[in-house]
Amino acid sequence: MMEDRAAAVAGTEPRTRDGAFARAGLGAAAILRLRSLSGWWRSRSTATRDGEFALVFALLSFTAPLSKIGAQFGDLPTHGTSAASVLLTLGMTLPMAVRTRWPAACLALAGTCFAVHALLGCPPTFGSLGLYIALYSAGAHQNRLRRVMVAAVAAGYLVFAIALHEMGSPDGLVDHLLFSMVLAVAFGLGVLVRERRVREAERRRLSARAAIAAERSRLARELHDVVTHHVTAMVVQSGAAQYLTDSPEKVSEALGAINGTGRRALAELRFLLGVLEATGESAARDRTPTPGRVPDLVEQTRAGGQPVDLVEDGEQDPMAIGARLTAYRVVQESLTNAVKHAAGQSTLVRLAHTPGWTDVEVTTAGTSGGAPASPVLGDGGAHISGGRGLTGLRERVEMLGGEFTAGPSPEGGFRVHARIPAGGAA
Q1: Which residues have CB under 8 Å from 277's CB, separation 6+?
Q2: How are beta strands 347-354 and 414-421 bridged, if at all?
Q3: Less Cβ around it within 10 Å: N or C end of the chain?
Q4: Hey, which residues does 362 pair with through a beta bridge?
Q5: What whole-number distance in Å separates Cα of residue 334 and Cα of residue 345?
Q6: Is the dihedral of CA 85, 87, 90, 92 positive or negative?
Q7: 10 Å Cβ neighbour count for 210?
Q8: Residue 310 φ/ψ, nearest 5 degrees
Q9: What's the whole-number mean pLDDT along residues 229-237?
Q10: What is the rounded distance in angstroms from the CA atom of residue 338 to the CA atom of residue 53?
Q11: CA-to-CA distance for 136 and 138, rounded, in angstroms?
Q12: CA proximity to 312, closest of 371, 362, 267
């Protein structure tokens, strides 16, 4: 007998498990269906949703199971259904079509019809709940003359209470206070929703402002790096070319270098203009420029007459584009400062790659007081940068979680060092 019972249990267990899986599948399908309907409902305009809600609300008010449910107050003798009661029910339901656009008008219509419906002793109706919906909508959506509206509602309720008393309503002061508290709760819920919506809008506004400020700062850094480096190189190269008139070949090389520098500057400026004009997905995809190669940058500076050596240690791990761009900008800004403030002084660019990190070090020889400025740039050289270079580099590196130092070196000259994580993103 025990074996038979065990066999019976074993036979029912798969069916029970299958039934549980089936119910779980039906539940998941129902949730997906509800989410789909919710998304479809939110995608419709506010006016359309309010109109459809008012229509459904009015139809439900005349449905037999719901017609006796409603907000009744005053305990006056009730009469049978009449044309007046039907019209008043429609007056409490159809104004919901404008509850978002004109909440005060919706409340005035629904409240007046509710009061007249109660004073005439009309039968209970589901549509009387429209008074609560109208109060909630007024609290949530009324933006102008809110205090005036509250005062008008309070005065209207006082007139309604006096009229009920004159018509023989048995409700006393406590009943009126309780009913007014219920009305105040409906209005207060709308006020809470409105305040939360205002706070959320303010949060989004501040977030957008912060994002705009960060993007402006980023573009300012990019413009600084592009304009300062390339324009400085072109000024130095063109200034040096005037001393090469006795050697046409060197003049040709200098002009070619100036031409190449100008083309690179134009290409980077076009990219930045494209970022400013881009919107949507293209802006998010193309906001970070493609960094150049440090060896090309060193060669370009060397071609302008600045003695620069490049030393690279270790094998470079795959780096995020933001990290590669930051390393490139550190070298670019450092070489620009070397050309401006230590023209002709030997400069060493050192890249050291370790697992997960890249160290960028640019050292310019000179005295501790600083090497003389480029004679080509003259007095205007110090004004080209605007003092934004090293500050911008520090922001770039620290934004990626790296470390940045810059200052005179003990041996004389100037040293810039940046430790950049390979996975950093701009």
Answers
A1: none
A2: unpaired
A3: N
A4: 349, 416
A5: 13
A6: negative
A7: 10
A8: -120, 130
A9: 68
A10: 71
A11: 5
A12: 362
Q: Please, what's the largest Cα pairwise distance for the chain?
A: 118
CB-count exposure of residue 224 (10 Å: 0-12, 13-18, 19+): buried
Beta strands in 270-367 (DSSP E): 308-313, 347-354, 357-364
> What are the pLDDT digits (tens) for 23-32?
666 667 777 7
CA distances from 381 to 70, 291, 299 (A): 82, 26, 22
Q: Retrieve residue 402's tokens.
A: 């790296």
Burial class, 201, CB count within 10 angstroms (exposed 0-12 / middle 13-18 / buried 19+):
exposed
Q: Distance between CA atoms of 190 and 295, rounded to whole angstroms?
A: 64
pLDDT tens digits, 54-63: 999 899 888 8
The Cα–Cα gap between 55 and 106 comes to 14
With contact defined as beta carbons under 8 Å apart, do 345 and 365 qualify? yes
Q: Which two tokens stand for residue 214?
A: 């960060």
Side-chain-side CA neighbours of 237 within 13 Å: the count stands at 25
356, 421 in Cβ contact below 8 A? yes
pLDDT at residue 55, as a whole number: 92
Structure tokens at 132: 């609560």
Alpha-carbon gap, residue 420 to 398, rounded angstroms: 9
- The per-residue DSSP string of 105-133 comes to HHHHHHHHHHHHHHHTTPPP-GGGGHHHH
pLDDT of residue 384: 37
Q: Which amino acid is at 81?
A: T
Burial of 177 (0-12, 13-18, 19+ CB in 10 A): exposed
* Conformational region of residue 341, where left means phi above 0, alpha means psi within -120 to 50, and beta covers everything else: alpha
Strand order in the sheet with 414-421: 308-313, 347-354, 357-364, 414-421, 403-408
Mean pLDDT of 342-370: 81
Residue corresponding to tokens 């790096």: 225
In this prediction, residue 146 carries a pLDDT of 87
Sign of the CA dihedral running 143, 144, 146, 151: negative
**DSSP-derived secondary structure for 126-179:** GGGGHHHHHHHHHHHH--SSHHHHHHHHHHHHHHHHHHHHHTT----HHHHHHH
